[in-house]
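Protein modeling request. Please complete all fields; requests missing the sequence field cannot be processed.
Requester role: graduate student
Desired output: 3D structure, token encoding
Chains: 1
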Amino acid sequence: MSADQYCTTVTAQNIDALESLGLYALRAVWREHVGEPPILRSASLLRALLAWRLQEAAFGGLDAETRRRLKAGGRQMTEGLDLGDGAQIKREWRGQIETVVVEADGFRWRERTYKSLSAVATAMTGTQWNGPRFFGLRSPGNGARSTV
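Delivered output (148 residues):
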């Protein structure tokens, strides 16, 4: 389906039709319905943004209260904050059980304190990682466990 064939009425079927469009066609649909498209190289990201914008135009966006709450933001949670001081996060890495201890000022691993779990995971692996994901705090059952 080309951008020219894209129907202007927003329905679930039309949103599904975005799946068949490539990056250039998605940009053309964006230009037609929203304005100048963002400079993105990811068709999947542009597709998701476009689906939101088209639904917003057809059905209305967020109400004023929701927009206000999003603008105000919430309290930012520090990684591992809910574990409490002294909690141990264990992860097997290269055949060794590595233990990270949650402290008031960060996370202690091998006698050094790091500001975030991501910094610990990066130091441990030599590769940038999302700390909570690496240590299994975001998706249970991937080999990491936490003990208090």
